[in-house]
Design a protein that fits this description.
Two copies of one chain form a homodimer. By secondary structure, the first copy, chain A, is of the alpha+beta class. Chain A has three domains: 344 residues, Glycosyltransferase; 97 residues, Maltose phosphorylase, domain 3, CATH 2.60.420; 112 residues, no CATH class. Chain A contains 17 helices and 24 strands. Chain A has a seven-stranded antiparallel sheet with strand order 2-6-7-8-14-10-11, with no helix packed on it. In chain A, a hairpin with a 2-residue loop joins strand 10 and strand 11. In chain A, helix 9 packs across helix 11. Chain A starts with 6 loop residues before the first strand and ends with a strand. At the A-B interface, helix 12, strand 15, strand 16 and strand 21 of A face helix 12, strand 15, strand 16 and strand 21 of B.
Chain lengths: 647, 647
């Protein structure tokens, strides 16, 4: 197996200017970041306080008080800084930067002499540091600290936070490792792995890469670290009470990572772990690790992924369940899990020029990720169902739907998803391109201006598109012999590529149309994808979707909502002969393409009964489908449905 | 509203001799009763002891020891006696009767001087009698005692047990009632109501009818008895710990019974309560109560009943959920709840000559009730799912399917369903006929010999049938001017009635073909129902069944099992054009009609992916459907499905 080692073109070189994403990036800057700043500072009225900044102040000895919040509460602050950093790259903002600097000063003050910095343990259980890697998220916290510190350093050039992160990482390196007396351990919640690779890249210090490698190699080995740790803790769990054993599937330590081929357990943990594995493989050239990552990728995306790009089908453990088990109503599909899949995809693109990774990236980005956020940028879903019957969700006896909400709440006690969305959207520029020695790969169709150096020359690309509502993109390139590889989306059956208005020459390679060099300044490449409304069926092994169809157009998965179609969406039926039309409505849901379909509806019965001899009484019905990601943006959320009854 | 007051023709006058039911009645006598006798005597190896008889011995002072079992453990003994009694009616068996007599002697010895008899309180909490009617089942226990005692008296003429029951009922009458100083209460688990009507009928003592009426009238009134009781108990629950409030929906005391129109809460409780309401209405002529019973009947059977006649869709609370919410996989549909629906139907038939009651009785009897029992008579389901994917049920993360088993276990700790099945099957003769002043109504098509007195004359009927596998019945009648009303099943579109080989004259009334008197001895009525294989659709409001079909033939609901059709039953599709054939196979599952269908199967994909543009690739597939009630009688129970994907 060949392993490429390509770069993503970094954020500072890619400035997004896009009809679809500008709004989201503006929401991050104007809504999410200010709101989150207030939240971590306990300044949001009528909301349970976060206490995150307060914990740092107490740990720094600047205030008195008790610790409050989750054991990983610090990470809310780190993720805020990370999102701020990405935002600052193209939008320097002195006031925002000043706020971040002040918080970083505070963080530094809270750091202990030996480098330790998790406020929970500093304040509450100083003698319990590193005694419960299984549940206490210390390394997870360090991971987010590193990600924030690296991003802030890259955005501003300021290294104070980076040094804080290095000091804590150095301490962890002294505590964890193969040597006798060290813990032969790793974190119950993967995250540190991918962060250490980032730290290595920016510091060039191999110690961090080796620490990452140690944690990944050690995971799942026997004798099992979490068993040993549990024994040492006398089987006392973090929450008090006796813990008999460790659920190793839950945290993906059920076997060594290179032996894993089926995604199991908590989906966010899994996504972060696989991303870290891919990062490490890319840096070290370790093909065995790449192979494991590829197997896990294939399992996730060909056996356990919703059509929206959501992953983790079960509320129990917020977890993967098993192949082809994708319930639409009791689903979990956490926003953060979809985000972790985007991370994973981006890392795989660096090692393999295969459009399948970008196809999944696009799928989850336009559907299962942004469905996590209301169009106002102020309300967020953890759980992203593909089917909702509000009556069922609200009924007292139907307890297995209770985790599924029909309306996005304002913020959460465990506020992982909103800041995760913020940092992904703010760094979206890094997901558009990958670059090999001689080729620029366009993975996502998002309007942007990009600069890079390829084959020794500075190159600039101006990319404009009406994606995802239309399939037309225009790319103005600058002079050079580099190749330009344009991803042909999996969903696209017909497309057309022009160079300066004439049919372009290209070769198809692994899902990309590769245009072969020789560009002049101002050359204009146009690519247009036919974007018809398309009915999609699920693999027949997905029992939940048997006999049903999803409506899609381009990368967008559509849904029916009761707000447009009235009650009982289940009675609406479509098939391959259903005629669909679509139009862009700039005044609807912030502007989107709406789909109409000449479907049928099963007639309401006149009989007051439950069962009768089948007689297929249908009547014409014009259905209205809206982008799935935009559901629950109106008052009426009684019903929503992605997979529609077939006929 | 007119209220009839008809009789069922009692068990002693109806001797079943039927190709289908003889086997079940034999299983009751030869398997269930002997097994249950061993069980209550703790003589089954490798099974948790029942301790039921032992509790009586301890309460009687004959043995030392601690109480063990549920608070209602006594009822296992009562239900055994009741089933024994029904069995003895047509099968006197000295040995069996001797065992019952010995147990009755023991029960009498355990009775306290004041008549009290619940062994839990006698042994364990003598000072807590009648302090927790909400949860402690004391009146429920008395109810089953009465049912057993009445049945045993009617079967054998022996009144010792009946006297025991009267003494306990007399005590309860002293404790509960409208007078000051008495409890203005009723039982958290209805059952006593229907039992007191039985006791009234056999003793003619109106006290028992009045007590029943008091309990039914009082239920759900404010100030609420269970609130007052909880207050008196200082909010201490039976299981220790504080109980804040009472779930009044759970036990149908959320409002006065005459104001109830939607079935809620624990389905068995509901079924027993509605049966008791109907019993009381029938005895007292209380039309307001009949109206409430009719509303609840309509709600249950037209909004909340599975096609199998199962009721109670939710595991949480073993309860009704809401109209048209009938999930096939997370279903509860407890065997006992279906049995309670049969009770309810039988009582309604006494007040209204409407075939709809018998239609539901037949539906639940041939499907959702007997599905509770394996063909060996030794294994039993509590929960009767309409769809099973074993992988999902067994997977650790899919906790909301855990209550659904794919194989019937041997017996239960809480052994309500097997003895309930036993007493229903043993008393099935009482469900066949109702009789008005001048008409004999045939409600069920079960072979039997019946004697009754009508219009002052003794009459005899010999009824033979090949039901449910065929639709042909022959009825030999004896001389008289009575009318004979033959139910035309709801499922039947074409039928033919002959009298002595010639087309008979009849009038259709409320779903019955009424033959108008003037019978001579030996007259032969033949009725034959066309019994084609029929695809059934559910009301479109039942979202779970949208786009799906059930296969039925006559009263029998069919299912697909993986044992016959291989894995992934979801990929099998039928529609109104599917050709079905059927045949009787005497060597298959104890003899039954098997259905074959020229259906299609969605082709397995060659692509290793989850979603693709819909292209409906199907291949011919001959499906095999078996009677739903007979599912899980073979090794392979990986999948089962009643509602099949449509096309």
């Amino acid at each position: 197996m060949k392993l490429l080692k390509q770069n993503v073109i970094p954020l500072k070189n890619v400035k997004i200017d896009d009809g679809f994403w500008n709004r989201y990036q503006r929401l991050v800057k104007e809504e999410i970041l200010p709101y989150q700043y207030l939240a971590i500072n306990d300044q949001v009225p009528d909301v349970e306080p976060s206490h995150a900044i307060k914990n740092f102040k107490i740990a720094a000895g600047l205030e008195e008080g008790e610790y409050y919040g989750y054991v990983f509460q610090d990470t809310d602050v780190y993720k805020w800084i990370e999102a701020v950093a990405y935002t600052l790259v193209h939008n320097r903002d002195e006031e925002l930067e000043k706020k971040a600097d002040e918080i970083i000063d505070l963080i530094e003050k809270a750091q202990q002499k030996d480098g330790y910095l998790v406020t929970y343990f500093i304040i509450k259980e100083p003698d319990k540091r590193f005694t419960n890697l299984l549940d206490c998220h210390e390394l997870y916290s360090l991971g987010h600290m590193i990600e924030g510190a690296v991003a802030y350093y890259e955005a501003t050039g300021k290294d104070k936070f980076l040094k804080v992160a290095c000091r804590f990482a150095d301490l962890v390196d002294k505590v964890i490792g193969p040597e006798e007396g060290k813990l032969h351990g790793y974190c119950g919640h993967p995250e540190i792995e991918l962060a250490l690779v980032k730290l290595y890249r920016v510091t060039k210090n191999e110690k961090y890469l080796n620490l990452c490698k140690y944690m990944i190699d050690e995971r799942g080995k026997e004798p099992h670290f979490f068993d040993i740790e549990l024994e040492k803790r006398n089987h006392i769990s973090h929450w008090g009470g006796r813990q008999d054993k460790v659920d190793k599937y839950y945290n993906q330590s059920h076997k060594p990572v290179r032996e894993q081929d089926v995604a199991v357990g908590h989906a966010v943990r899994a996504g972060y772990l696989y991303t870290g594995m891919a990062d490490l493989a890319c840096e070290t050239g370790d093909v065995t690790l790449l192979e494991a990552a590829k197997r896990l990728w294939d399992n996730v995306t060909t056996k356990q992924m919703y059509i929206t790009g959501g992953i983790g089908s079960m509320a129990g453990g917020e977890a993967f369940s098993f192949d082809y088990h994708l319930p639409n109503d009791t689903v979990y599909a956490e926003t953060c899990a979809a985000i972790s899949l985007a991370f994973f995809a981006q890392r795989m693109l660096k090692m393999e020029n295969d459009s399948k990774y970008a196809d999944v990236l696009e799928r989850t980005l336009y559907n299962g990720i942004i469905s996590g956020m209301q169009l106002d940028g102020k309300h967020f879903f953890y759980v992203n169902p593909l089917e909702v019957w509000e009556k069922q969700n609200l009924h007292y006896a139907t307890y297995h739907h209770r985790h599924v909400r029909t309306k996005r709440p304002g913020w959460f006690g465990c506020a992982c998803c909103p800041p995760n969305l913020a940092r992904l959207i703010a760094s979206l520029g890094e997901y558009i391109y990958t670059q090999s020695e001689d080729t620029i790969y366009v993975n996502l169709y998002i309007g942007n201006n990009m600069k890079t150096n390829i084959l020794g020359k500075d190159v600039e690309i101006k990319f404009s598109t009406n994606y995802p509502w239309g399939g037309e993109s225009a790319i103005e390139v600058s002079k050079g012999d580099y190749k330009l590889a344009l991803r042909i989306p999996e969903w696209c059956e017909n497309y057309n590529i022009l160079k300066n208005g004439k049919k372009a020459d290209y070769k198809l390679q692994n899902g990309y149309a590769v245009l072969d060099g020789g560009f002049c300044d101002g050359d204009k490449i146009e690519i247009s994808f036919d974007m018809p409304v398309t009915l999609v069926e699920a693999n027949p092994q997905v029992r939940e979707d048997a006999g049903k169809y999803a409506i899609t157009r381009g990368p967008i998965v559509y849904c029916l909502e009761s707000a447009d179609n009235g009650e009982n969406l289940w009675a609406i039926r479509v098939d391959e002969n259903t005629k669909f039309t679509h139009y862009y409505d700039e005044n609807f849901l912030g502007g989107c393409v709406v789909i109409k379909g000449e479907a049928v509806r099963v007639k309401e019965w006149t009989e007051n009964k439950l069962y009768r001899k089948a007689k297929r009484e249908e009547e014409p019905f014009t259905l209205t489908a809206i982008p799935y990601a935009f559901w629950s943006n109106r008052e009426d959320t009684r019903e929503m449905k992605v997979f529609i009854t077939g006929r």
